[in-house]
Structures are given as C-alpha cells and as structure tokens.
C-alpha cells in the first residue's frame, strides 16, 4: 500500500507551464485512509537539491542519508499534485515500491510548509 511519508519515483508527464515534469521523486502527503481508497494519492514534488542553493519556507530539503534516495532532494511543497495510483507502479516489477521515506519529524516540517501555502492555522 502507498503510505504517507513514502517517496516514489513517478513520471509526471504530461505537464503544462511551470509544473515539474519528467520522472521525479514525489513525497506522499495524503492520509493513509485516503491512500487505501481507489481514488488519487496527493504528493509534493521533489527536485535535486543541487538545483536550488537557497532554502525557502515552502521547500523542505532532505538528505540522501535520511531518506534512502540516491541524492539530496528538495520537496517543493508549493507543487502539490494528486496522482492516479497507477503512476506509482514500476513497469519493470508491476508493483508500487517506494524509493525511500521521510522521517516523521521531517513530515512535521512538510505539514508546516503546507499550512503556510494553504494559509491554514
């Protein structure tokens, strides 16, 4: 099952405008109750940390050592997407396999960034 806090590599194409495109890491932010349904999975999109030298309140920088990803990553919490679960299926294995995960303490930072973006208390 796809779970909150897990990271997957998914193909985000097709996209438009300034949306992040191509195969990228995404961090699952929707609750597990929603993720169990045959609906959509809500994520924030990641990019290589080397591409963004400065930190912003809406971005969460995570290290490869804490996530299990091959390199340091920044999750762009202003790039929220809801994806069909079929995007998480690896074509080689036919199943959804996470590439890593974010510790609960870092998910709290993601939650704070999302609150800032959506102006939630």
Protein model, in words:
By secondary structure, the protein is an alpha+beta fold. The protein is globular, with a radius of gyration of 14 Å. It has helices spanning 32-35, 64-67, 104-118; strands spanning 6-11, 23-28, 41-48, 59-62, 73-83, 100-101. It is built from three helices and six strands. The protein has a single domain (6-118), classed as SH3 type barrels, CATH 2.30.30.110. The chain is 19% helix and 31% strand.
Give structural attributes.
6-stranded antiparallel β-sheet; 3 helices; SH3 type barrels; alpha+beta; 121 residues
Layout of strands and helices, then pairs:
Blueprint: E1 6-11, E2 23-28, H1 32-35, E3 41-48, E4 59-62, H2 64-67, E5 73-83, E6 100-101, H3 104-118
Antiparallel strand pairs: 1-2, 1-6, 2-3, 3-5, 4-5
Give the gist of this structure:
This protein has 121 residues and is α+β, with helices and mostly antiparallel strands. The chain is built from three helices and six strands; from the N terminus they run E-E-H-E-E-H-E-E-H.
């Amino acid at each position: 099952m796809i779970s909150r806090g897990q990271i997957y590599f998914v193909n985000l194409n097709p996209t438009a405008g300034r949306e992040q495109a191509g195969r990228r890491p995404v961090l699952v932010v929707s609750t597990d109750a929603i993720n169990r349904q045959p609906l959509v999975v809500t994520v924030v999109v990641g990019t290589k940390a080397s591409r963004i030298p400065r930190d912003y309140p809406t971005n969460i920088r995570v290290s490869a050592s804490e996530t299990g990803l091959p390199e340091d990553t920044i999750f762009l919490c202003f790039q929220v997407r809801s994806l069909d679960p079929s995007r998480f299926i690896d074509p080689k294995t036919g199943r959804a396999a996470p590439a890593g995960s974010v510790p609960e303490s870092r998910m709290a930072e993601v939650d704070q960034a999302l609150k800032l973006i959506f102006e939630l208390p």
